[in-house]
Amino acid sequence: MAAAFVSIPCSFKPAQISAILPRRLSRPKAPNLTLSTTASDQSYFATANADISSHLLRSLPTTLHPSVKTPIHRLLSSSTPPTIAPSLCLAASELVGGDPNLAINAACALQLIHAVRHAHNAVISHHPLTEFSLGTELMTGDALLALGYEMVARTPAGDAEAATRLLKVLMEISKTAAAVAALEEEEREGKLAACAAVCGVILGGGNEEEVERARRLGMFAGKKELAMAEVELGLGFEEVRAGAVRRLLQEILLCHSVTISPERKER
User: Where is the signal peptide (predicted)?
Assistant: First the structure.
């Protein structure tokens, strides 16, 4: 079943976690997902985010006291605006022939950054997202941010090269978490999506040129400048590996078209 805290845009329905996305979370390695093989009538955004949500909930410490666990679940279940960053992180890993399993912890961290930023905004505006005090929400958000870093650090790294890539991802995520605090919504989504694409490509084994191409692709996708995102996708990556990202871009375009006001369409 889909976790409650994933925000699905427009008409997307919360997806059941597909039977073809088996999990082996009890083992040291990441769950064996095959997101690119989901049915064509299933939203990639919804399916990927449902999987990320499930993995995130399973990653919460089981020994948490109810006084700590309840605010965490309430905050994660609050109505945060949708973000493409977590699903883009998984899709981007496939651009360079990588395994999205290795990107799922980074995707969870990006989801937490997004949720925490929204919680901080609610505290600043004195509009709490839960029944708890603003102070409790603030401290809960900070704890979730620390959990995000911990989850990235758990990503399997079997050799020195993999460990170096993991360190680069941690640096990207920490810089992004600090940067989005001072950005407006559109710029924040662009920055978060750029980080997502970069982290996916790094963990997928991409080179420096592919990483920088992914950064631009993610920034354009986050800002809904989809034509430019398609240019970066076509110029920098093999078409045979671009299916997941292209499908995600198409879903963004569909959602964006649906939400354009009638007045704007007439212009």
Answer: none
